[in-house]
Amino acid sequence: LWGVEIGLHKSSISLIIAFGAGLELIVMFLGAYIKDHLGRVATLVACLSIFGTGFVIMVAKPDLAGMVIAAAVMAFGNGLGAGVNMTIGADLSPAVGRPRFLGIWAIFNNGGKLGGPTLLSLIITVSTLRFGVLFPGLLAILGAVWILIWAKQVGLPGRRRRLDPPDVRG
Questions:
Q1: Global pTM?
Q2: 147 CB-near residues (< 8 Å, 6+ apart)
Q3: All domains in the chain, ordered by first residue
Q4: How far apart are CA 84 and CA 51, in angstroms?
């Protein structure tokens, strides 16, 4: 929608999206490494702040170059966070009642998938498309700040603990 708004041809928009999707697939491996070695908090903060910055770039530079840069930044951020939501759900789930917890976690996750676009449509209806593009970016950046503030209170794990080597003494 934003690409059409700034006058890009539909084939250009498609190529930009394909470029972003390909980059995201490549970055997923780096995201998994970061998640395992630097921790969930570092992964989530990087994902949200980088992804959100892509939306800000899109609005700040409303042309072809801006869309390509924004797509690359958003793909990089989103690729870093691949799977982090479900991983955090598993990390926070209690030993007793884990299936129920993860089921409720999935309900909220799916509710966000439904509610996010609905909320964004309402925002665009009552404001402008420019603000509708900017809003999720700002929300993602605020989410990164929220995670930094509340991670310890919520109980999000930091770095992965290395397991001690097995005792092989006979």
A1: 0.84
A2: 41, 44, 45, 48, 156
A3: 2-154 (1.20.1250.20)
A4: 14
Q: What one-character-per-residue DSSP string does 101-165 give?
A: HHHHHHHHHHHHHHHHHHHHHHHHHHS-HHHHHHHHHHHHHHHHHHHHHHHHHHT---SPPPPPP
Copy the structure tokens of residue 147: 């995670």
SS (H, E, C) 19-59: HHHHHHHHHHHHHHHHHHHCCHHHHHHHHHHHHHHHHHHHH
* pLDDT digits 0-9 by tens, 7-65: 999 999 999 999 999 999 999 999 888 888 888 899 999 999 999 999 999 999 999 99
Joined tokens for residue 18: 């394909």
Give residue 35's pLDDT.
87
